[in-house]
């Protein structure tokens, strides 16, 4: 498996300016937070990145030197026995590929870097570290163990119930320990203990995959937890997506069997010998522990009376436990998990706990969140507390559960009695704002509960505030919705009996998300999931991993494969995903063309149309089911054209130039066919004159040049007159609407859509109490069966518009990954300030602008080793100052030209304070 990652370090170094005194410059790489588990990677040529920060302006890297050593001592002595890059004259500071000695399984790599900049030479950075995983199948010893049967209390049917399996093994470590590492594949989910201590702070690990294609292993350094002498290792296995939630409809629900695991504990002794503790028949297992059932849809039941104190420590009497069984190995490849683990990322206190009737309470978290409820309780043995999780309440103030469909969303805790008991589930999560707590002994208060917010532990990289409160709240709701739906894959929703990684929910949304969360690794993993899910003939599913087997063949959902790869390149400057997936993308396009493109170059196959477009009025949508599909050839043909452009770009970026002409020629034919079929030149509209039809033709560049203006007028007419200032787009159209209006001259109208509070709009959701983003524009009146209050698909291109157009933080399309930053904030009436930041691969970018009566002030930060092109509103460059000085005398500022009402400058790195009159 090829993969890539970033290496962390924080370094302090002095840079000697030319002829100046030494100044303190920091060198750091905050991308480190992205790498959850620097232990056990299986990439033999990892890529290294570093971040330079400093007070001076115009810091540009001119050269670097990387040292990679096999021990910290060697590194300290500047001995790069694995790799000494020598001084490399290059400005590259991200994705620098390791080019040293061949790396082998379990190698340890300590590294540091030194840079030469336009402002002088740095000292060596602080050391950073990674270790190699088990690169070859043959590196693994032992066998897969499990327990391939049900217990009397389990049930295998539509609502599957399967208790967690507990495993243990005692062993002797006879000598003095130098180092110890565990490599574990625990499917579906595991918890790992050594000598009674939990290993790692990850939850719901490992990341879900189609286990028949690939399985993820995790690595932990357990040197601290292991002792010379007797030791005990314990694991708990939950079901996750392996033993799936609905054991029926085998044609749709993919399931993989009973939980199982493979574990290797590699102990290195100080005398140079190595010992491997492995899973085999000497392990003991029981399913008769406290976790009686765990089902992601239905919840977890925990009976504390069944606890087995000391089960994961030395000396426990496992006489009643069974011998572990050898079980079939999953067919999937073993791969190191490179995306972040899920963790408890935040804890919320309830805003209220109200009694509904004696013993039953409604806990209100004040926020629709994803995770679980942790409880503190005291009572007698056998008391049973039941939680039911809901996003909304009904008129009587009870939990409304219609919208979770047949998911039981119920956690049950049975007390053991005899003092305070603290509990949270291990193998489930819920999407909820409210929890009905029944059977609670005594009086429940907010002090009894914590809302544990769980998602992939990725860094929050963006911040965004404006003078408009609707925009701010929609942003906040997006933040909550996006992070909640990260579950080792991007889910559509976290609450009902679905929770599937639908491709069509993310094409453009993933791009917007990347401004808020450092989602590069998750989406790289998702591209792998998609590739693994591709059929041999080229078909790509609507859901990947294809836990629901939907291969409906369409351009919009499957095409997310291309769009996400493009996003990783644009935002992270990372071309590897495009390289890796190019052949599969090409194959998919070919497959669609062969099967569905007619002789007029119309792509005849679509599945969902402009999914969930809003009913014309809120009344029209009352009580209506939203699952009506309107397949559209216009949409599929327009997207085909768009992807043909993208494939030309990908071909160029990956050295497949030979493919470019073919894609270009076909694109021209598709464009002609599209206009023949769908363009009404007289009326200046496309298809049925739906907003989405027209937007796609405009934004994708399908419309004949001379008709562009007329088409823009049509679009404006629909929004302003027909829709009375509102959008009328579903999942497809909403992805292009904000930037189309902005790029084609009506940013004011985009701003209106962004700040509306009447139906249909994002602000309408806010006005109706939403704290996340709804699945439906009419979420408050539609039929409940398909009505999630926590979907992100309707965000369209809104979040990227916030950052790129309102804040003016955008990467150039040519120098991607924010190597060159384009800063051209929109100045629309009504918006007085935007204060935003984004932590790019190179460092922190800030844009903090304010409009006052006749003054425009703009504080900007540009990271070292990048440049920014900034567009300052001014009638002439003479009216602009920086730091109180003329711009012509400001360091790092270069006036380029006037462009309309903007003075355009190039900035080197540094912090700037512009004032324009
Ligand atoms: C629903 C989900 C999902 C969407 C599909 C087509 O089940 O809402 O978000 O992509 O339909």
Automatic annotation (TrEMBL):
InterPro entries per the UniProt record, alphabetical: 6-hairpin_glycosidase_sf (IPR008928), 6hp_glycosidase-like_sf (IPR012341), Alpha_rhamnosid (IPR016007), Bac_rhamnosid6H (IPR035396), Bac_rhamnosid_C (IPR035398), Bac_rhamnosid_N (IPR013737), Galactose-bd-like_sf (IPR008979), Ig-like_fold (IPR013783)
Domain Bacterial alpha-L-rhamnosidase N-terminal: 175-346
Signal peptide: 1-23
Residue span, Alpha-L-rhamnosidase C-terminal domain: 808-885
Superkingdom of origin organism: Bacteria
Domain Alpha-L-rhamnosidase six-hairpin glycosidase span(s) in chain numbering: 460-805
Swiss-Prot/TrEMBL keywords: Hydrolase, Signal
Coiled coil (residue ranges): none
Reaction catalysed by this enzyme: Hydrolysis of terminal non-reducing alpha-L-rhamnose residues in alpha-L-rhamnosides
Name assigned to this protein: alpha-L-rhamnosidase
